[in-house]
TrEMBL record:
It comes from the Eukaryota. This is Integrase catalytic domain-containing protein. InterPro entries: Integrase_cat-core, Retrovirus_Pol_polyprotein, RNaseH-like_sf, RNaseH_sf. It comes from Araneus ventricosus. Residues 1-105 form the Integrase catalytic domain.
Length: 111
């Protein structure tokens, strides 16, 4: 959570599954003190979890780039993340980067 706060500032809301790290007394106290609203995804309903949906999109891309070099997957994540963040969402017509930062990310060709 600290890395998220340092990168994106404090959220107004945190959506998570019911993992012990999210339902712990420490997490609940932190959210209370920082005035962050916690929302939990229903148990056994991964379709409602936006992270699970992104992981479903990430897995095939990662397997294509990694192929048989399973020790290199962490090196491939930044390029996959960039591709996913700059792809337009069919429901909003916007990219994740635009919705997060209020602007599109620039590629090397656009600099």
């Amino acid at each position: 959570m600290g890395e998220v706060f340092l990168r994106f500032l404090l959220p107004r809301r945190v959506i998570s599954d019911n993992g012990t790290q999210f339902v712990s007394a420490v997490m609940q106290q932190m959210c209370y003190l920082l005035k962050i609203h916690q929302s939990f995804i229903p148990v056994y309903h991964p379709q409602a979890n936006p992270v699970e949906r992104k992981n479903r999109d990430l897995k095939p891309r990662l397997s294509i780039l990694v192929e048989d070099q399973h020790d290199s997957w962490c090196e491939k994540l930044p390029s996959i993340r960039f591709a996913m963040n700059t792809a337009k969402c069919s429901s909003t017509g916007q990219t994740a980067a635009f919705l997060t930062f209020g602007r599109e990310l620039l590629t090397v060709d656009e600099v």
